[in-house]
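Late entry, 2-(butylsulfanyl)adenosine complex.
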Amino acid sequence: MTDPAKMSEADAANRLMRLAREIARHDAAYHDRDDPEISDAEYDALVAENKAIEAAFPHLVRDDSPSKKVGHVPSSPLSKVSHAQAMLSLENGFSDDDVREFAARVRRFLSLDEDESVALTAEPKIDGLSCSLRYESGTLVLAATRGDGTVGEDVTANARTIGDIPETLKGAPDVLEVRGEVYMAKEDFADLNARQEAAGGKIFANPRNAAAGSFRQKDARVTSSRPLRFYAHGWGEISAVPHDTQTEMVAWLQGLGFPVADYFRRCETVEEALAVYSDIGAARAGLSYDIDGVVYKIDRLDWQDRLGKVAKAPRWALAHKFPAEQAETTLNAIEIQVGRTGKLTPVGRLEPVGVGGVIVSNVTLHNFDEIDRHRLRAGDRIKIQRAGDVIPQVVENLDHDEDREPYPRPQTCPECDSEAVAEEGEVDIRCTGGLICPAQRFERLKHFVSRGAMDIDGLGAKSIEEFLALGWVKKPSDIFTLKSHRGELLKREGWKEKSVDNLLAAIEARKGFDPGRFLFGLGIRHVGAVTAKDLVKAFGSVAELEEVARSDSALEKLVDVDGVGEVVAQAVIDFFHEPHNREEVARLLDRAAPADYVSDVQETAWSGKTIVFTGKLESVSRDEAKAQAERMGAKAAGSVSSKTDLLVAGPGAGSKLKKAQDLGVRVMSEEDWLAEVAKS
Ligand code: IVH
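Prediction complete; structure with ligand written out below:
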């Protein structure tokens, strides 16, 4: 990371924008899909970088800054609930000095004397998901996930299925919100994944994701079949606080029937707390659940109250994270996987090795630049790291050799043998056989039938999955042969004569469809709906576009089209260069027979004339006015010159109006212009 002190303001603003976006993306991957792309350590590094830049440029802190958000309101079908008291997050520390600094800050804040002791509690930070349990008159009435800290999800029915969570409490105050962690033990996680694999279900990356995926279920019966546990580490709203310290409160919660963390310790000094950190660290691999650090809390509750909180975390607590766990092993092979969008990702196959109690046999290599950075080759001894979760990564190549040539880039896709290409200036290599590549099938089919493309009613993601599984539809052209499966489809659950016939009719209705939407549906990289329309407009039909894309002067002809640059042109050329794609396009042209482009440009009194719009237009937008001019065969220009035939001037017209008058160009009002449009 660049030192924020050396950053220009513009660089800092840019980096903050990127970080906000990137962190939000990782939040969604982690919380909504329970499927993180990066390790917790990498995530923490992004957050720390954001924090450092914000500290150096406080006036650049963004409204959507990750430092302002506690978490993430998940987009899920569970209903939302507001928390009576915010569910906070924890500040992270990574070194002993961070912990000492935390204690010193507390002392300063409370203006304590040197000799006054500040007792702390220390307990493991279990890697699960936080949950708030609300009891009224001793009965569980609501369970909620943290969400963004203010609004979470209602998981009451799910919580009732967890054995560790009592349904009723004896001797509890009228209102008591118990806060704690829902988690899955390592062994239960392994068993669950084995069962999931046997049943063809989702495989979870780690116990935390398995716990989150199991707990945040619409159907509580699914949750009840999953081995979840709970332990209490605090409280939210409470009508009467029965004790004065964290230690007594935790013991009280335990007395009420809640499991609390093993290794919970009260420490008189920071050094004692650091010793507990070492003990817990040493015990970590042998624990039955994943932990990612130790949480310290100021023991006295009156001090906790005085300390209060900063934006998203209490000042009276700190999470002391464990460093990532590392090990050395041999890289046996480098293999290439193809993602759902065609990205080729190298994966390292390892001599299996234990890292922090888990046997690891694969590492992610991210991309080919990453391989080059480490100069990796099969057979190298490498140091890997597992940061508590996700797929481990390479930290160092112990056989590093600067003189090695770059690793050969794959020329073809290992799944479908289509050509694989890297875009100018991009590190990623992609398969160009999008239409036929098995790894990309599902996404491509979904795109082909989507609203902006062929818009086939009744052919949603679920049906596509079903037809894929049956082997009926592997590529877009197969959609047009679905009718041959009508009889079989009628026998399947969930399909009635009416729904089957509606679907088949919707498919038939797409024969002879709009060529722009057909082209967009092919999913050529960088060819969005508008570009697709521009391309068929320029060349008249998809078949003609293919001709052009295969010609010697393809690049020239393509970049000649308004709105098409070199990147788009090259993507179109790459697409039609791939024989598999051409075969599929031929089948599609045969079966779906898209129409030729029909120009909506009319012959009018304005054909061939140049028109400029200026000033404020009141009943149409500027873009619409230009489109009107184009449909009337005219050209819309931006500035007035001797070649201008007409200036349409709205209120506030300035220099262009003056220039038009000087040049003797005809001028008319918006109203007059609309009358011209109406006439044409
Ligand atoms: S105390 C007001 N104690 O870590 C402070 N949190 O990274 C609330 N966590 O949202 C948290 N073990 O879900 C606390 N012993 C522990 C914990 C713990 C795990 C989780 C909790 C929190 C997250 C923050």
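The CA atoms of residues 136 and 175 lie 5 Å apart. Will revisit in the morning.
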